[in-house]
Design brief:
Elements (H helix, E strand, L loop, with lengths): L1 E4 L1 H7 L5 H12 L5 H9 L7 H11 L3 H4 E4 L11 H14 L7
Antiparallel strand pairs: 1-2
Helix pairs in contact: 2-3, 2-4
Length: about 100
């Protein structure tokens, strides 16, 4: 699954060009006070997680919907031949665990 963050495009379509403009709109229209650094981070890179209240505030401030803020590609990820989805997930977890030093039991 691929997610493309489009906040900057959605803002530009509404003539919001800077983080400070967006920050002001968030406060005025949605009642959300965010730091300049937080707004800048949302403007410049895709967040790894986003609170639903922040998403709702962004939509309120920009008068848009979540569909305007990101694209979601739900194309299924291909699994290696012979692995069931459960085994593939277990194999992915095993690879992650191998890279970490685990405390002795």
């Amino acid at each position: 699954m691929q997610i493309s963050w489009k906040l900057r495009i959605a803002a530009a379509q509404r003539e919001v060009w800077t983080g400070s403009q967006l920050r002001r709109l968030l406060a005025e229209r949605a009642g959300l006070e965010m730091s300049s650094a937080s707004v800048s981070a949302l403007f410049t890179r895709q967040p790894s997680q986003l609170k639903l209240t922040t998403l709702a505030a962004l939509c309120t401030a920009l008068q848009c919907t979540p569909n305007d803020l990101f694209d979601l590609d739900t194309t299924p990820v291909e699994q290696p031949a012979g692995l069931s989805p459960v085994k593939a997930a277990a194999a992915g977890q095993a690879q992650t665990a191998r890279g970490r030093s685990m405390p002795p039991l």
